[in-house]
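Running low. Got one?
___
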Amino acid sequence: MNFQIRDAITANMVGNSATEIREVVEDAIKRGEEHLLPGLGVFFEKWWKTAGEPEKETVLKHLEQSFQG
């Protein structure tokens, strides 16, 4: 079986509202379970591919600050 996590997550999220997507993200973070991290990575990848450079720079600055400790 050739299981593609990107395809499965995309199929599960197609048609979801912003509110529903937020709930998925917040639930995954709240649970803190390692197996949910790849799904959040797919969310980030989808966003990254469609974001403009100013948006990416803003997020990168926020991430830099988040990892300062």
